[in-house]
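Exercise 7. Given the encoded structure of a 302-residue chain, write a plausible sequence.
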């Protein structure tokens, strides 16, 4: 039985990851700050620790050995530098982001981000520099731990019923409630992945022979215009009303900026994952159900 450690497994795709690992019959331990008590389908071991305190890390893990460690809590290079020297593992899987690509535009393959060209610094997390932090996560691994068995999973926007960021939900709410918002990429087609499939893919990687960065995304892309059009159908708005609302609500002189602004149209190439045997779903298979769920959640709050 494989012994698995998950750093951050109590919400969003981390919770789905834990459930998938339990289905595989693994011995699973989650390590968190202990702020949230979550029920899982089977017994899960728990460790309370402070990710940003090296002494806490040493006390929690220095005497343990794991087959696979999942890290969903790495946001900058210091998170890696204070953690990995004190972990004993056969495989380490860290979630980064497609935000590492610069520019994130056109068809994107793993090789389009050259980690070797990043000027490496050991820096603490900066919430205002998410993409830069994720680049430093990968650069830390490249510079300090490149000989180890490590997979860096690059996710696009992760969405789902359990998305605590509520970024997609804000677009739906703005249309339903006629709330003005500035959107500068209304028609750009972007990749997404469901929180459920993100968890499944991470669990899948526990049994593959692979090392390095890997893209993950649902097949086919979606624009914010596509999302709003689906919401308009739920509102029973005719096409003329929909286009009029879009023209009135999403202008450049509005102070409230949309969550996915500045992201241009792109396509995430997932051929490496497919070659390993994982076939991602099409976004068309689940996006309508998600939008319907969020639509009625917003309506019931009115």
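Solution.
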């Amino acid at each position: 039985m494989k012994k698995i450690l998950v750093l951050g497994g109590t919400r969003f795709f981390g919770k789905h990851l834990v459930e998938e690992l339990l289905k595989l019959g693994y011995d699973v331990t989650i390590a968190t700050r202990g702020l949230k008590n979550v029920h899982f389908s089977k017994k899960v071991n728990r460790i309370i620790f402070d990710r940003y305190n090296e002494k806490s890390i040493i006390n929690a893990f220095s005497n343990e050995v794991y087959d696979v460690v999942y890290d969903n809590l790495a946001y900058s290079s210091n998170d890696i530098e204070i953690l990995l020297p004190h972990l004993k593992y056969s495989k380490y899987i860290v979630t980064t982001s497609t935000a590492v690509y610069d520019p994130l535009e056109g068809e994107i393959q793993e090789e389009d981000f050259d980690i070797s060209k990043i000027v490496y610094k050991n820096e603490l997390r900066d919430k205002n520099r998410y993409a830069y932090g994720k680049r430093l996560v990968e650069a830390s691994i490249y510079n300090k731990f490149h000989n180890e068995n490590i997979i860096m999973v690059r996710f696009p926007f992760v969405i789902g019923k359990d998305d605590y960021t509520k970024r997609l939900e804000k677009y739906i709410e703005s249309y339903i409630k006629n709330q003005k918002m500035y959107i500068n990429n209304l028609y750009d087609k972007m990749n997404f992945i469901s929180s459920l499939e993100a968890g499944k893919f991470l669990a899948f990687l526990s049994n593959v022979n692979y090392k390095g960065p890997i893209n993950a995304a649902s097949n086919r892309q979606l624009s914010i215009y596509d999302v709003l059009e689906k919401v308009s159908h739920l509102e029973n708005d005719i096409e003329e009303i929909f286009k009029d609302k879009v023209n009135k609500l999403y202008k450049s002189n509005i102070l409230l900026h949309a969550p996915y602004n500045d992201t241009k149209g792109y396509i995430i190439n997932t051929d490496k994952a497919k070659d390993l045997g994982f076939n991602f779903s099409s976004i068309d298979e689940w996006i309508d159900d998600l939008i319907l769920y969020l639509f009625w959640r917003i309506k019931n709050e009115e």
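Remark. The first strand starts at residue 3 and ends at 7. Students should compare their own answers with the one above.
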